[in-house]
Amino acid sequence: MAITATVSGVRIDIRVAPRSSRDAVLGEHAGALKIALTAPPVDGEANAALLTFIAKKLGVSGKQVRIVHGERGKTKLIEVEGIDEATAKSRLV
User: Fold this and answer.
1) How many structural domains is the chain composed of?
2) What is the dihedral of CA 50, 58, 25, 27, to 10 degrees?
3) Segment 44-79, tens digit of pLDDT
4) Residue 41: inside a domain
5) CA 91, CA 93: separation in Å to the nearest integer?
6) Residue 62 DSSP one-character state
7) Does 29 fall in a domain?
């Protein structure tokens, strides 16, 4: 599964589809959670949009969400503090 528990929260494997018609969770794809974003992959816009989208979907503040790996690619590893695995799965999947 794309969501795994950590000591302080969860880690989420994400595959981003930038320049989509809407922001949405598209489900699991090749072991990662596929997320469509309207933002273009230019000057960090898609990364900022992704962090905001994840924070909103999980009901946490933006400061609790960060990119651990993959800032320049479509495949990213996100870490979210202050939420458990079951809650994250129920809100994203």
Assistant:
1) 1
2) 120
3) 999 999 999 999 999 999 999 999 999 999 999 999
4) yes
5) 6
6) G
7) yes
